Amino acid sequence: MLDDYFRQYGLVAILAAAAIGIPSVILILSWLLSLVRVRPQKQTAVKGDIYECGMETISPRWTQFNARYYMFALLFLVFDVETIFIYPWAIQFGALSVKFGVFVLLEMFVFIAILVVAWLYAWRNRALEWK
Where are the beta strands (DSSP E) in 3-129? Predict the structure, then answer.
């Protein structure tokens, strides 16, 4: 039993080493290739051009986005993740309620209550209004 416990931490350690090692090796290799002059270092006008979605930009300057777009995107993300958590719970509700009883339903009520409090906070601070 203890061997299985340490084996699981070994797998996490291998994943962490790969997550740190692979980007580090790529950055070091890129730096080494710049010393051998395989990787170009000169800044040109083409490299400095703004490029999005395969289309040339309309204006020559950067445009600022309204911060409300980000607020709506974050709120959408929060409530989308809520749906991702509720859906598997709803599918397995019958089996879970047999095993754990009413505790499963109460836990979901607590989860939804936390999200409702967050939604009311956003509404009270007028984060959902577009001016």
Answer: 51-52, 55-56
For 125, phi then psi, to 5°, come to -85, 10
Residues pairing with 82 in the sheet: none
Tell me phi and psi for residue 126, to 5 degrees.
60, 35
pTM for this model (two decimals): 0.48
Residue where the block lists tokens 């010393």:
35
Q: What is each CA distance from 45 to 49, 50, 67, 107, 131, in whole angstroms?
A: 6, 10, 30, 57, 39
Task: Tell me the per-residue pLDDT of 64-120, one tens digit each, with 9 for 90 and over.
Answer: 777 778 888 888 888 888 889 899 889 998 888 888 889 999 999 999 999 899 889
